[in-house]
Design a protein that fits this description.
mainly alpha, Receptor-associated Protein, 3 domains, 14 helices, 85% helix, elongated
């Protein structure tokens, strides 16, 4: 597929179309930000420098995304294993104890009754459980595909304990890096913010970038506009203000991106230590419920035998 697209680009170039226009015809491969930077490079005669900046940006952006995905993979795998273990216990283990528990008659503890009820329902109506899960997944995916659903889901992702902060700082690093490389290439700030909002990948962050662009369009300095949307902490706002005063805001934005990348890198290195308590609490709660459900009736039976 990529080869076919490159051959089409080559034919466009041979037909007299400029490079940026040829790349713009394939937005799935070349995002608007890339095309805009290349167009500026063509118009200013700095195409080689534009390609160099793009290569550095793509390498840093891909490295950031790979580290975030690797960090999120660990808790996802753990939760899947926990869900599988609960399923095995509910369908195969608990039914083995059910005849023993029924000997208590009406004195079965309520945790045991709840576990037995769930186990019995899963055994006899497993197709309903699977259907409900599939229907829920389908409904959630359809809802997330809507504009309102995507915005709500992206907002929730940023509020997840530990992981939400990680995703938020990773998004800010990407936005700052995109702004820096675009302004260094000579793109107007307003045009850059519009493109970044379209390619933010998070509707909540895209809305903040659009608010930032609207503030800049009204004539506010970038530092004041950034303060009004609540995206950046005071330290970053001070760096932006210094960049505006010195006339080198692109370099300061590059420092901001580096700051957030270092924060994300530090958080990734300590992610296991931050997530483990939450996972231990979740696993401990599940084990406690199952243990009470199984052990309480056994204690009742042992007390009867002793009497």
């Amino acid at each position: 597929m990529l080869r076919e697209k490159l051959e089409e680009i080559l034919r466009d170039l041979e037909g007299g179309r400029d490079l940026a226009g040829s790349l713009a015809r394939h937005p799935t491969i070349f995002p608007p930000l890339y095309v805009s930077i290349i167009r500026v490079g063509e118009e200013t005669g700095t195409l080689e420098a534009s390609f160099r900046r793009l290569a550095e940006y793509m390498q840093q952006d891909q490295d950031m995304q790979d580290r975030l995905k690797a960090a999120l993979r660990y808790p996802a795998i753990v939760m899947c294993v926990i869900a599988a273990a609960i399923g095995v216990l509910t369908i195969f283990v608990i039914p083995k104890f059910e005849p023993l528990f029924k000997q208590l008659g009406d004195n079965i503890p309520w945790p045991t009754l709840a576990i037995m009820g769930v186990s019995s329902f899963a055994q006899h109506y497993w197709y309903v459980v699977i259907g409900a899960i599939m229907l829920s997944v389908f409904a959630c995916r359809r809802y997330v595909q809507t504009e309102h659903g995507r915005y709500r889901w992206d907002t929730v992702k940023l509020r997840i304990p530990v992981l939400g902060k990680l995703v938020h700082e990773g998004s800010l690093a990407r936005i700052a890096r995109s702004l820096s490389i675009s302004m260094t290439a000579g793109m107007p700030v307003i045009q850059t913010l519009k493109i970044i909002a379209q390619a933010a990948g998070n509707q909540f962050m895209a809305e903040r970038v659009n608010r930032l662009r609207e503030a800049v369009e009204r004539g506010d300095p970038v530092s004041r506009a950034a303060a009004s949307v609540g995206m950046f902490p005071p330290l970053v706002l001070q760096m932006l203000a210094v960049g505006e005063e010195t006339g080198d805001i692109s370099a300061l934005l590059d420092e901001v991106a580096g700051f957030y990348e270092r924060e994300v890198d530090y958080a990734l290195k300590n992610l296991s230590a931050a997530i483990e308590p939450l996972l231990i609490i979740a696993v401990g709660g599940i084990v406690c419920i199952l243990a009470l459900g199984v052990m309480l009736p056994m204690w009742e039976m042992i007390s009867r035998v002793q009497v």
